[in-house]
């Protein structure tokens, strides 16, 4: 397949994915906006005013980066896992599998779709945050790199989940029982300094803790985690998950008999 | 003429131990209209699955226009289009979007994709439905949409897995005309069908598969010539009671009802002999037809022989 053809195929998958989540915007874009808006209002505004400062910032300022990250992570993951699994379920994925599109283009197309939805919801959350606080970006480069790479990581994770999933239960187990606890315990709402020694040790093995804190560093200039370790971890995650997806696609896991 | 598909010792055993293919050898020539017949579970869809790379063989191989599908994945996929047995498009997408998206998967630039989408949707009578969600289409329209989708990259080989299942007679005839037209224009067609009349009407060559093995592979004509006998049904112009029938000397004839006679005609006998006997007895016949589809008779007899 020529490179120009591969590009058209990639663009086709991406447009299809974007069109899908835009068509069902009431299911994909509105709910996270409402949920995060309520977090801003209840935790940031009502309760936050009584909490006072956290790591030297107002509680509202402290939770904004974590809430943006939470929205990006959940939506990037949800987009890929639901879209890819639905196509498997309806068997419309066969349209793609019988075509000459290489596996890495299939993966890139779905990941780009996940990133697009993650970032779209992230932008909505940023716009909403302006109602409650002034957002001054401390380091644009790190902020954009972290949000982009995190969206890629969770799009890849969603893809892996969808490959193995055999039922709609299988695509909700990981977000409910693994992803949500990791996000909430990853320092979205609190500084790790508040935790006892054991809690800090547990946070140190939670990859979400590094992502949230590095993003917080990009926006506020303060982080509970080492920035360079976090950035390195993100890159490693992208490569490891990407390689795993490609190996499974090559084997035809969950797709070919 | 070179071969469009060459299947060598193809084997498939599924993870549950079911042996779907037990060493299939098959050759389909370029520009042929080829029928692959067999009862349910015989292995037809597994063969199509292996050609389209959705199913991995456990032995043997398939070459499309001389290139192995396992090693020349991208080149071979450009050469064929597949119409699966079951509807497999997104029911929430619009008709034109489904075809356009497929064109994109084959790397067709947008302008060309749009042109081809219009061309095939028009040919298959779906252009008026281009902006409706595919789930609202009738069963026949869904089948035609899958044909348009399979043709959008204009493959040299079109594989159809029971394309007319559940389609009404009028629509089936129009689909036959369309398939014949694209075959006449040079596209090789492989067809699996349960309608044996369809295979007899359209196909030049045929293979019958049963329990994962090819039990017959020849031209349609030579297969039909293997018929030992056929039963002809004669519609009488005038009423004839069984008593009157008994008074005539009509060897081989049976009295079905007051307006119908039946006769078995061996392979070595001509229809003229039937007419001669009827004329001799002064019996007027309005029309004459085969009692059952000839291919159906052969198909059933071959299956019976293969299981004995």
Summary keywords:
heterodimer, A: mainly alpha, 11 helices, B: 308 residues, Alpha-Beta Plaits, 2 domains, 6-stranded mixed β-sheet, 36% helix
Which descriptor suits the 3D outline of chain A?
globular
CATH second-level architecture of the largest domain in chain B: 3-Layer(aba) Sandwich
- Strand-residue fraction of chain B? 25-35%
Gyration radius of chain B, in Å = 23 Å
> Percent range for helical residues of chain A?
over 70%
Please tell me the total number of domains of chain B: 2
Q: What does the overall shape of chain B look like?
A: globular
Supply the number of helical segments of chain B: 11
Task: Provide a concise account of the structure shown.
The complex is a heterodimer of chains A (257) and B (308). Chain A has 257 residues and is mostly helical.
Task: Please tell me about this protein's structure.
The complex is a heterodimer of chains A (257) and B (308). The two termini of chain A are 24 Å apart. The model of chain A has no long low-confidence stretch (mean pLDDT 89). The longest helix of chain A is centred in the first third of the chain and has 32 residues. Chain A is globular and about 60 Å long. Chain A has 11 helices and 2 strands; from the N terminus they run αααββαααααααα. In chain A, α4 packs parallel to α7. Chain A has one domain. The radius of gyration of chain B is 23 Å and the shape is globular. Chain B has 11 helices and 14 strands. In chain B, 36% of the residues lie in helices and 29% in strands. The longest helix of chain B is centred in the middle third of the chain and has 16 residues. A 6-stranded mixed β-sheet of chain B has the order 6-7-8-3-9-10, with helices on both faces. Chain B has a 4-stranded antiparallel β-sheet with strand order 2-1-4-5, with helices on one face. Chain B has a 4-stranded antiparallel β-sheet with strand order 12-13-11-14, covered by helices on one side. With 308 residues, chain B is α/β, with parallel strands linked by helices. The chains are: A mainly alpha (257), B alpha/beta (308). Chains A and B meet through α1, α4 and α5 of A and α2 and α3 of B.
């Amino acid at each position: 397949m020529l490179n120009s053809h591969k590009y058209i195929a990639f663009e086709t998958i991406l447009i299809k994915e974007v069109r899908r989540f835009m068509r069902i915007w009431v299911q994909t874009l509105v709910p996270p906006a409402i949920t995060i808006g309520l977090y801003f209002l209840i935790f940031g505004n009502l309760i936050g005013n009584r909490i006072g400062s956290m790591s030297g910032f107002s509680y509202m300022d402290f939770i904004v980066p974590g809430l943006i990250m939470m929205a990006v992570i959940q939506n990037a993951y949800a987009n890929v896992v639901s879209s890819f699994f639905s196509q498997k379920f309806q068997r419309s994925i066969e349209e793609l599998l019988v075509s000459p599109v290489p596996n890495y283009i299939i993966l890139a197309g779905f990941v780009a779709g996940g990133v697009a939805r993650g970032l779209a919801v992230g932008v909505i959350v940023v716009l909403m945050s302006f109602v409650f606080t002034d957002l001054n970006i401390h380091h644009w480069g790190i902020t954009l790199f972290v949000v982009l790479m995190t969206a890629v990581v969770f799009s890849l994770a969603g893809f892996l989940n969808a490959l193995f999933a055999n039922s709609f239960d299988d695509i909700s187990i990981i977000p409910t029982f693994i992803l949500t606890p990791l996000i909430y315990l990853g320092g979205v709402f609190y500084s790790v300094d508040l935790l006892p020694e054991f809690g800090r040790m547990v946070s140190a093995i939670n990859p979400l803790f590094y992502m949230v804190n590095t993003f917080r560093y990009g926006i506020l200039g303060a982080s509970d985690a080492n920035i360079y370790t976090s950035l390195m971890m993100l890159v490693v995650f992208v490569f490891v998950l990407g390689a795993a997806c490609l190996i499974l696609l090559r084997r035809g896991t969950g797709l070919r008999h | 003429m070179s071969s469009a598909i060459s299947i060598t010792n193809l084997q498939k055993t599924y993870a549950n131990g079911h042996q779907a293919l037990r060493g299939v050898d098959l050759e389909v020539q370029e520009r042929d209209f080829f029928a692959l017949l067999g009862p349910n579970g015989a292995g037809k869809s597994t063969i199509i699955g292996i050609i389209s790379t959705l199913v991995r063989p456990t032995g043997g191989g398939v070459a499309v226009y001389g290139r192995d599908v396992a090693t020349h994945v991208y080149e071979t996929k450009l050469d064929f289009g597949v119409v699966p047995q079951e509807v497999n498009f997104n029911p929430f997408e619009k008709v034109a979007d489904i075809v356009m998206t497929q064109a994109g998967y084959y790397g067709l630039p947008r302008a060309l994709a749009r042109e081809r989408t219009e061309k095939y949707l028009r040919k298959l009578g779906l252009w008026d439905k281009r902006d409706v969600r595919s789930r609202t289409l009738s069963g026949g329209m869904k089948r035609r949409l899958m044909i348009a989708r399979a043709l959008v990259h204009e493959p040299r080989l079109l594989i159809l897995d029971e394309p007319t299942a559940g389609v009404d007679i009028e629509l089936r005839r129009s689909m036959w005309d369309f398939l014949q037209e694209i075959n006449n224009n040079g596209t090789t067609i492989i067809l699996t069908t349960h309608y044996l009349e369809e295979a007899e009407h359209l196909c030049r060559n045929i293979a019958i598969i049963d329990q994962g093995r090819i039990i017959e592979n020849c031209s349609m004509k030579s297969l039909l010539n293997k018929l030992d006998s056929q039963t002809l049904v004669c519609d009488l112009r005038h009423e004839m009671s069984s008593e009157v029938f008994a008074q005539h000397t009509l060897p081989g004839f049976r009295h079905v009802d007051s307006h119908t006679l039946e006769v078995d005609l061996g392979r070595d006998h001509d229809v003229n002999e039937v007419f001669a006997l009827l004329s001799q007895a002064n019996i007027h016949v309005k029309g004459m037809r085969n009692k059952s589809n000839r291919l159906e008779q052969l198909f059933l007899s071959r299956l019976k022989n293969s299981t004995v």
